[in-house]
């Protein structure tokens, strides 16, 4: 019963990441990087951490942003010790909530009981308050380690942490993209990096404002959605869903705006690769590499290929690439249309099917076509190769794919893009 209620909360508050975190706390005490919240003036509680079971700051982030703050080795060690202590406290907090939920289950308490729901609401509010204190304390303690010169760089550090955590709270396609990461992965030369530096500076500030506004909205939804659900007030739930979508779209559109500017500023030889990386980051399920593409990439590097085999593999790879691009574009378009038109009713219906998507419709059709196209290409590749060569192709289980190319499970979809069709 509790699991069903938890899923229902996730549905009706699709754009409320704090509720997602609450559902996670009820089932696990795992700690993952969370989302952002207010800046120095507004405090870091709740919003900065992004969820009850998600740390505001990790030791990995200390290492990553040490250069930004120009931290000494001693400062990094001290900051890491603060983070370790903080994470121990957040884990204990999550464990306490989990134990409380387990106790309710063992005692046969039912979420349909108003007293039980009110008890858990109060427990959640108490936990949020305590997390706010922990989050504020951690950031204050880390800042206290800085010299005056380093303190001047603190706002940039705050934005970097909020950005890294905040994009992970995104729940529509394109909202989870971090352009700083894409530029870093592009490994631009010095001249190209300089050409996009000013664009990234503007992106940093504008995205931070949008993330902060979105997170404030999520906190509001957190406080209201449970009450609306209990009252069966679907009309107001729809309004909250629409408000959440508007805030999410603002973040997504900022990513698109600056990705376009960066692409235009890059030299032609790197522009296409960057634009493709942005598409893949925006719609990871639509553009994820298939097993056939991985097999073709491996096969073309075999040293025992004949000239005829090389030409056949090249032709097959080019053909598959063109066809997959077309169907993946359709899948991305259909996915976005579904996200923009989702209602509480359609989300409830989807979870009523156990998190599976429609068996028919644009998303299911495109995903099926993509899968069949890749399967056919893989079979054709094996016909080109000898049996011994085919045995050397990478297997799906080598990556743990297990047919996930175009059939992601409900858990993966919840983590990456809950609004999308789940087939």
Our count of domains comes out at 2
**For the terminal residues, how far apart are their CA atoms?**
24 Å
Judged by helices, strands and strand pairing, the structural class is mainly alpha
Low-confidence stretches: 1-52, 400-404, 407-423
Relative helix content: over 70%
Mean pLDDT level: 80
Protein architecture, described:
With 423 residues, the chain is mostly helical. 72% of the residues lie in helices and 0% in strands. It is globular, with a radius of gyration of 24 Å. The two termini are 24 Å apart. Mean pLDDT is 80; it is low at 1-52, 400-404 and 407-423.
Summarize the structure.
This protein has 423 residues and is mainly alpha-helical. Helices cover 72% and strands 0% of the residues.
Key structural traits:
2 domains, mainly alpha, disordered C terminus, globular, 423 residues, single chain
Topology diagram in text:
Blueprint lengths: L1 H11 L4 H11 L31 H11 L3 H34 L7 H30 L4 H4 L2 H14 L11 H8 L3 H42 L2 H32 L2 H15 L1 H4 L3 H9 L7 H35 L2 H9 L9 H23 L2 H5 L18 H7 L7
Helix pairs in contact: 1-2, 1-15, 3-4, 3-7, 4-5, 7-9, 8-11, 9-10, 10-11, 13-14, 13-16, 14-16
